[in-house]
Design brief:
single chain; alpha/beta; Rossmann fold; 2 domains; 9-stranded mixed β-sheet; 6-stranded parallel β-sheet; 18 strands; about 20% strand
């Protein structure tokens, strides 16, 4: 069975969020269970520099004229075959994959990511030829959203298509005037196609044309069918409920394990936690927190947005700090929240430390040194940080939503047998404060805390189980393959 994964980022070469982690791990996990999984990525310089054995597959016709692009193929460091769309005028730019150095969307993002989808369709059709042609094209998020559309609108014997929603809040919406730049027939601009509230929706196109739709946790698959969680797509998703499934993301424990993590100042296991105390002391020093091993240390590793609930944390933090807790914040996002956490640190020296930005190695050190990882999200499709936290014995404190609800079991008093963290329901300051109170109460009982830590560290969210679910989905689409 041949499966082509189409995406806009890939860990460790290009990463802005959890999508890169998934795309970096899932194809390799599928290879391990017998699926010929390959990647198709934009030819950013970091992608091209990170692939080995690159050769030219062919010249890719430009759907809107101008210079053609090349399709290259090489291998990732993990041995996965990876195609790259080589178009320097579209992909060789400063900034991140989607934004210019000033933080604004690139004005031609519709062309940049339409070409990615076009390349997938070309490889699945005339470009595949005798070389390699996928049975299934698996598109990830809006940036790959036109791949199912281009495939569905063409007449050759075509592969099946799957579209995965990693976060429905990001939809790739563009004005209808760009339609003639995308090599899409005008009749496809309708409610039964790309049209989305008078605009062109790349994610809408994927959800309309894909044979199957997945998202990244079972609970999120239900939430996106509601007005509260569907972001305007709930009607379409309700209509396609029979084609929609939630498959929980996995964790690459080769990267995320305190027993082997070279980015930690000390390693540790569930049986020998001495190294975690050393990690906590090092983290307190790094964030200029008081060197107090008894102080409960709450960590944040996240984009700082209201969707992630960090306005709630800003309001709830004074009460938490008044009880002797410490807070280490690693993240960036909305300016008001960045400024709010920096001001909180100034008001509470020795108790609050911030690092505004993102640092991959530091995220490992926060996982290793924190007692609790805080994720008060209003919406969270899956979340990987809480699954990393479980393995590191840094008990996650989460709101009951999306993948957070599917992966963390609340430590209710007298019911610690399966508990792995703390879960609150209401997306408000009172709800989060209730979660803090539950965490502090357990922290004051070292024996109970260790029991829940052992439960957490024993959880297995490896990619193997998730990959099997995807393989079953592919087999359902191609039962004879």
């Amino acid at each position: 069975m041949r499966v082509l994964h189409v995406a806009s980022e890939f860990y460790p070469l290009v990463k802005t969020g959890g999508l890169a982690d998934v795309v970096g791990a899932l194809p390799g996990a599928l290879l391990g269970i017998g699926v010929d999984a390959r990647l198709l990525l934009p030819g950013y310089p970091r992608i091209l520099d990170g692939l080995s054995g690159i050769r030219v597959v062919g010249e890719l016709p430009n759907p809107w004229g101008g210079a053609p692009a090349r399709l290259l193929v090489g291998r990732t460091a993990e041995g996965v075959a990876c195609y790259a769309v080589d178009s320097p005028r579209l992909y060789d730019r400063p900034g991140n994959p989607y934004l210019d150095p000033q933080g604004r969307d690139w004005a031609d993002n519709h062309r940049r990511f339409a070409l990615l989808g076009w390349a997938a369709a070309w490889l699945a059709g005339e470009g595949g030829g005798w070389r390699w042609r996928p049975d299934i094209v698996h598109a990830h998020d809006w940036q790959a959203g036109l791949a199912p559309a281009y495939i569905g609108l063409r007449q050759w014997p075509r592969p099946a298509t799957v579209s995965t929603i990693h976060n429905i809040a990001y939809q790739g919406v563009f004005p209808p005037t760009v339609l003639n730049e995308l090599a899409i027939p005008p009749e496809a601009y309708s409610i039964d196609g790309l049209e989305y509230h008078g605009q062109i929706g790349f994610l809408k196109a994927a959800l309309w044309y894909a044979d199957r739709i997945t998202t990244v946790s079972p609970t999120y698959a239900l939430e996106i069918q509601t007005p509260e969680g569907g972001m305007g797509m709930e009607g379409l998703l309700q209509g396609r409920a029979g084609d929609l499934s939630g498959i929980l993301n996995g964790v690459d424990y080769g990267v995320w394990s305190p027993a082997t993590d070279a980015r930690l100042p000390a390693r540790y296991t569930a049986e020998d936690m001495a190294g975690k105390a050393a990690c906590k002391a090092a983290l307190q020093a790094e964030f200029a927190l008081d060197a107090d091993p008894a102080a409960p240390l709450f960590g944040v590793i996240s984009r700082l947005t209201q969707q992630k609930g960090f306005d709630l944390l800003l309001h709830a933090a004074p009460r938490l700090l008044a009880q002797g807790a410490q807070l280490a914040v690693l993240g960036s996002g909305e300016a008001a929240l960045e400024e709010g956490f920096q001001a909180l640190a100034q008001r509470h020296p020795g108790q609050v430390g911030t690092f505004i930005g993102y640092d991959e190695a530091l995220s490992h050190r926060v996982q290793g040194g924190a007692d609790v990882i805080v994720m008060p999200s209003r919406s969270e499709p899956c979340g990987l940080v809480q699954m990393y936290a479980l393995k590191y014995g840094s008990l996650p404190l989460v709101r009951r939503t999306g993948g957070l609800a599917d992966t963390v079991v609340h430590a209710a008093p007298g019911m610690l047998g399966a508990a792995t963290g703390f879960v609150f329901d209401d997306a408000d300051v009172q709800g989060l404060s209730w979660g803090f109170a539950a965490a502090l109460e357990l922290y004051r009982d070292p024996e109970a805390w260790r029991r829940v830590q052992r439960n957490a560290m024993a959880q297995d969210f490896s990619w193997t189980a998730s990959a099997r679910h995807y393989r079953d989905l592919y087999r359902d689409l191609f039962p004879d393959v």
